[in-house]
Amino acid sequence: MLNIFNHSQAAFTCLVLQALWRLCVDHWVVICRY
After folding, report:
1. pLDDT band at residue 28 using 50, 70 and 90 as cut-offs
2. What is the mean pLDDT of the chain?
3. What is the phi/psi pair of residue 25, to 5°?
4. Which domain of life is it from (predicted)?
5. C-alpha gyration radius of the chain
């Protein structure tokens, strides 16, 4: 049970990091346009 929880938590963290990375890239693209 603990192993499954750790795996899902790691997957969730990965999704959050991907979302943050995408926001960061979009932010820099906007800055570079101006």
Report:
1. confident
2. 84
3. -65, -45
4. Eukaryota
5. 15
Provide the token pair at 13.
């963290």
Q: What are phi and psi of 6, to 5 degrees?
A: -65, -40
Q: Give the residue from 14, 21, 20 showing the smallest Cα distance to 6.
A: 14
Q: Tokens for 20?
A: 């943050």
How far apart are the C-alpha atoms of 19 and 34, rounded to whole Å? 23
What one-letter code names the amino acid at 28? W
What is the Cα–Cα distance from 26 to 21, expressed in whole angstroms? 9
Amino acid residing at 16: V
Rounded to two decimals, the pTM is: 0.58
